[in-house]
Fold these 2 entries.
Entry 1:
Amino acid sequence: MIDYLIVGSGLAGGILGLRLQKAGLKIAIIDNNDPNAAYHVAGGVWNAITFRKILKGWQADLLTDEAHRFYDDLQKEWKLDFYSKKEVVRIFSDVAFQNNWLAKSTEPEYSNFLSDDFPDEIEQLPVDLPFGCGSVKKAGYVDLDIFMPALQDHLKANTEYIIEEFDYDEINFSNNGVIYKDLEAKAIIFCEGYGMVNNPFFNWLPMRATKGEVLTLKNPGWNFDFIINNGKHLLDKKDGTLSLGATFEWKNLNNETTTEAREVLLKHIEKNFNFKDWEVLDQKAGIRPTVSDRRPLTGQHPNHKNLYVFNGLGTKGVLISPWLSKMMTDYLCHGSPLHAESNSDRFLKKHYN
């Protein structure tokens, strides 16, 4: 018998699986190898500031500290180069935004995050800065093209890793736990992303999907070591390409890339950059799992006590996964409490029948 069967090995399931494995637990993973998983449009940037109102996001200090420690330690352990701390240079959209940023950067709560300073190198790029710019100092970048294959290869080498669609009808409950086909586990943890809407045990939770699309552009010869944001992220990947994204779509929830999203992204970048001849090398789409109150979902099924959910990381999966997976591991291993705002029990009264 294994301790936990994890369904899904994207950012959420993969990092949680690694945590449980390092805690000495025996796990198995079932993943459908979805080429349009949410992490494909995550971009890899972590930043705890919400730019619309220039506010620190949920648990910003805890999340940023743990994200840096987790990714930095792991790349040293694996002897790979997939993580670095990077400033996010935010281009100010108007005078009101500029004034709000400058005021916030002087507040003690924000002084470790926001600065009215910015790298000199941005002025060497063909960029218009009519209202100036500032920087987010506590931010970073995870190259998911390196990290995710390395994470999944590590899990495959150290656990039973099954690539198939999960069949809920194959779940049987026993006195000792759960039986799925020929696997017997103490419990199942569902980390399915937006696929949770098809899960008969957890589809009562208020999952909202957001489609995102990102572009890979040919780098016209620019060289910068920070992330540029003017409402979308622009990143120099140091391989001759730039990453641009992402869009947000709440209606046409499919995995198809669209010319509309491509045009939106290219028009957006042309607002501030004096360059028009972009060559699009690739375009990807994915569905992000978001929750109605913009908080993740962690916890136990109200009736089936050997079924758990770990989901709803939304657009900040790279930032949230390290801290949330640590909390979930402490909960499963030691009975430590889940954060009330991430505990799925918060929706019991309103949504569970």
Entry 2:
Amino acid sequence: MGGAGAVGIAGLAGCLGGDDDSDSADDADSSDDASTDGDLADSLVVQVVGGHYIDSYQEEVFSGFEEEYGVDVEVHQISDQFDGYTQIQTGQSDADVSITSANTLYMGANQDVWEPIDTSALENYDSLLETFENPIYDAGSEVHGIPTVYGTVGMAYNRDELGELDSWEACWDEANDGRITMQGTDFVRVFTTALYLGMDPNDIQVDDSYEDGIEQIWDSVREQQDLVSNYWTTGDEHVRMYSEGEAYVGEAWGGRIKAAVEDGHDHLDYVVPQEGAYSWSDNWVMVSGIDDATRRTAMAYFDYLLSEDVIVPLAEALGYPPATDATSDVIEDLYDYDPSGGERLTFLEPGYEDEHSDEWSEEWESIQSA
């Protein structure tokens, strides 16, 4: 699904630019005022990934926004968030707003691809969980993205064999020798191991020394390697290992494990461990250079999207918890849901990863080939 082809009804909105005046912020607080005074754009062009995402947004968000605000929302479909970012950077997209990952949010904020957001003009911004308010993956002091839903790389386990678990310690427990599986990606190996050891994955150190801290992490990775049956690289691979009883405990994607349980593998469970887990979020951004009316339209969309009546059914449809304090029985049953209110969600700072990525990749390859 590579091009930016129009997909009918739809659309998402992005961010508020820093050059907005107080009148436009006031307009954004009220859909009625903004619409009847002609302060919104007639249309909003958005980029969103296809498949389940377009279907969920179209059913739960887009048509309602069009009806409430009188704006024609046009969706341009992208294959993934890096595809969308490249299209905007190279002038192949006329999108006003786009969905982003942490990496594309960070890159665009650094390269002035996204406009800053005046969050004080968003009535519902305060509904975001604290960890999502100007998160670590949004570069600089200004806000450039509005998080909507999140997911995790947490811990799956065989409840019948191991009982209830809540700590990464199980993945280093010699009692589970040969029944542990972990994701075979260098930065995830560093990230989860740092959490297990009580370090900040975005500021690795022991006694103020990065060298001592990363050495301790790699030593722990080597120690764990002797217990690991396999390092997985795909969703299908790790679901098969857990479902067939080949693995009892290890890293996993919450949504995939929940689907496996629903398919009858009810011996499985999933937790965001007490030490925290690698987390990600979808974020909506506004492309730099859009006009004032479009900017106000994006603002109106943000408040609409963050409202509880909208984000709850959207999160339920997507199968990922919302980045706000809104909840429901369905949301609390999602495996990625963090009952601590976001305290166990831990995000990677893309700049920190970029700084160390070559070094981490080289060391991880060396460990695997040893």
